[in-house]
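Figure-free illustration: sequence to structure, shown twice.
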Amino acid sequence: MKVKIATGRAMLLAVCLTPMRVASATSAPATDGLGRLNPRSSVTGFLQACQSQDYQKASQYLDLRQLPPRYRDKQGPELAKKLEAILNSDSGFNVLRLSRNPEGDLSDDSDPNREHVATIAQGGQNLTLDLERVTLQPGGPEVWLFSQDTVAAIPNIHTPTTPPATSSTASP
């Protein structure tokens, strides 16, 4: 009889404690160490990394998942440096126009997971540089990265040889 009671108490204790463990595991919001939780903070972090010439860090603001992993370490910083030059050469780009809302600016695109950053005139066409809200790993936070199509376009965008002396940066 004592064995049944002890077993029953152990099962009751396990059942009672299980929801508390699940609740505490899901109640903490996922965070991102690079501050890519809204469009403005993501672009600001990218520009600050570039200003510090930390292009490896800046590449973490680009969605490089379309590149084979063995090429990301080399091509990521090169793409980040080129994107920095593109944004600095665009007199219409202003990071202060980007949303601080984690949901982004829902009025600028029919896709709520995209945010327009800049429009670049190239060869008589306008190219839109966008961020996209993605989840990089299961259970991780949603982060804003320069979209895969923006990253794919970077090598084909030509910039003037002399960019403006200042870039449009601000606090996130």
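We now fold a second protein in the same way, so the two outputs can be compared directly.
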Amino acid sequence: MQDDPFSPFLSAQSEPATPAAEKPPRKPRRTKLPEPPTHIGASSQTEYGQAAIFLKTLAHPLRLEIIALLSEHEEASAGVLEHFTDQPQTTIAHHLGILRRAGIVITRADGIFRFYRLTHPRAAHIATLSTDSRGPKSRH
């Protein structure tokens, strides 16, 4: 039997460690969401919810620029969008993926290239409005 290397550090009076009583697992805290207003109908809430998701998807300067370019050129590859935006191709692909998952753009494969096209006319309209509404123009 080998000597325990930790025996000099343990007192002779100490008792063997017993496992602590096991606690039941904690339930995750859930933040209670406020109740929706009762004066708005269920169909309106759905429409507002869809509009909010749509606007959140557009709420990025590069995505607005991509949408504006696609509205001008009808269809473009990520490489063409990279050229016009001066952004790396990976960044363009990331934002195109977000727009594709939201249903704002669709893709068409042609060989090794993918071409992107707008499917949502409101997106082009919002992109146009966002660039036209930069405030009053100077008349000097």
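Summary for the second example: Residues 42-58 form the longest helix (17 residues).
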